[in-house]
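Case study.
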Amino acid sequence: MGTLDGKVALITGAARGQGAAEARLFVERGAKVMMTDVLDDEGQQVAAEIGDSAAYMHLDVTSEQGWKDVVAATVEKFGKLNVLINNAGIITPAKEIHETSLEDYRKVIDINQIGVFLGMREVVEPMKTAGGGSIVNISSIDGLTGMYGASAYCASKFAVRGMTKVAALELGKHGIRINSLHPGGVKTKILNDINLSEEQAEEAFKASPLGRIGKSEEMATLAAYLASDDASYSTGSEFVADGGLTAGFSLDS
Amino acid sequence: MRNLEGKVALITGAARGQGAAEARLFAARGAKVVITDVLDKEGQQIATEIGDAAHYIHLDVTDENAWADAVKETLERFGKLNVLVNNAGIVQVKALVDCSVADYMKVIEINQLGVFLGMRTVAGPMKDAGGGSIINISSIDGLIGMTGGAAYCASKFAVRGMTKVAAMELGPDKIRVNSIHPGGVLTPMVTQTGMDESMVNSIFGKVPLGRVGQPEEMATLAAYLASDDSSYSTGSEFIADGGLTAGFSLDA
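After joint prediction, the assembly is written out as follows.
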């Protein structure tokens, strides 16, 4: 299914989890993909498995110069840039606000929020040159609702949701669409960072209407939709894939 | 792309506009489609154009018995039901102070009770099919207000709310329920409000994407939600409005 035929996509945080799933699916659907991460061994490995349609480059999303280099290299290697998936992100173990150090707070904001800001800014010119494009910012259900012990994470994910709308207003005239994607619980290695085992994570999301945790591939299909021309009239909006977690609450015990 | 292969979809209000575009696209992507409407001649015509993959049934969405009959006929014809697109609707622009109860209830009956009846009637057959996807066509008027839209906005907000309740109740049966929120789309429903094409273009030309939407651009979103690609989405709003509800600009 070649819905992404002829498109060139840059995906951050693509060494594993959702980013890696996106890279694989995008190539399967016809795109060329520049994968970036700070986990170089794993990133190289995934790119090698995918083959000629993928390349890997080191990118710390908080580095302004790093972004400029990666965008230039992508255009040089694949000729243009149509799609950016701002997927890179971190989560830190739960801590109440009064226990959260400024340093810890800033670290999350730098990667999850400033990284997205820089990415959007750096791809505008090449996307204008390409005649338009699609930016998909990976927010979270924590960009829609609160999560206990996650002041920095929620702040960063709400910020991504807000910036998405501003960018949509500013860049629509260039044919660049920007939307945010809001995953619920998804089985990826990032869950280890908040000390959740696979079993605990699966158990935690059983209470959602669909009764199970999501898969990375189910986020990749949504990102692929937004990257494709099928989504040609969507910009500035939230696209949620959370198994119904944020749909509401139940009176059943 | 045949990502709806093997699925059977029932689409209401499918004689023209977005519903007709959905019917054509769904069939092109491999689905069998039951087209329903109250505009029998136009609906029949679309079904004939699509061919064997389509079948037309008269359905007034406010009629409880007619829903039962349409679903039964769908199962007889195509063997199962996987997808419902609650697309039928009417628009009414009438100032609150000028809106009679009869005016108001006409919109609520079609846009809101029609969706309620549709969801209720398909839940059983979808459970039998091992799951399904219900797509309720709301509007940007289910997200924000519109002058003259007391009844229309009420009905479209109601659809958005019921979508979330249905998602919670039907999730255990693997039935996903989401709402689509089109912005300005050039269809007969819009031009029937008295706006001609140039008025529609000048109003919706101000959105970030700078143009009015096309029915086909709503059909692609419906197709995404109908497909297994959206397997982890339920109870949410999916917007295709060219950025109309993204915010406001301080530029003159």
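Observations recorded in class. DSSP finds eight helices and seven strands in chain B. The helical segments of chain B are 17-28, 40-50, 64-78, 101-128, 150-170, 188-191, 197-204, 215-226. We will return to this complex in the next lecture.
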